[in-house]
Amino acid sequence: MKLDVINLDGASAGEVELDEALFGLEPRADILHRVVRWQRNKAQAGTHKVKTRTEVSYSTKKIYRQKGTGGARHGSRKAPIFRKGGIYKGPTPRSHAHDLPKKVRKLGLMHALSAKAKEGALVVIDMAASDGKTKTLASQIAKLGWKRALIIDGAEVNESFVQAARNIEGLDVLPSQGANVYDILRRDTLVLTKAAVEALEARLK
Fold it and tell me: What is the pLDDT of residues 93-112, one digit of tens each?
């Protein structure tokens, strides 16, 4: 499939041939869901923690005598049955990550790229050297109508462009190696440079 290439001023800069095997698939929601869930679970901190009966601060003295009170037998105020006692089977620090086959992860990225292409939300740009000015880039982005966009560059991102884009709300910049399903789907527009197209095709073939 062919797609027009533009520059940051919106002018035409030729066209590029996109691989149908990467950008022409019929998006599958089940695969995208599996990959996004894998990403978010892996990123979850898992630092939630409660105190068990061995960790709460109370005396270890038996609270009252075993017999003759007319009440139930108790030996410690730390028991979960009491207010401010230890928590029974509460959350403890752990990893929420789970395994996902590499083939599924790869397929998920291909389907994410195809989803953006099918929506008409995929743009290929010829990014000339930026002057590093946020004001200039912000006006260019506004003219192009990108409100929530992810820009993916080649193996190395243009430092002056990153500097200019840093303070623009709704604009993210990633190297091709950092391209992932979650970031692609959460933005309205996916913007690829020519170098990014080449890098992604080499990575996913």
Answer: 999 999 999 999 999 999 99
Residue 172: pLDDT band (50, 70, 90) is very high
Residues carrying CATH 3.40.1370.10, the chain: 2-45+97-204
pTM metric for this prediction? 0.82
Instruction: Give domain 2-45+97-204's CATH number out of 3.40.1370.10, 3.30.2280.10, 2.40.50.140, 3.90.1150.10.
Output: 3.40.1370.10
103: exposed, middle or buried (C-beta count within 10 Å: 0-12, 13-18, 19+)?
exposed
From residue 135, how far is each of 127, 142, 151, 167, 193 by CA, in Å? Answer: 17, 11, 18, 10, 21
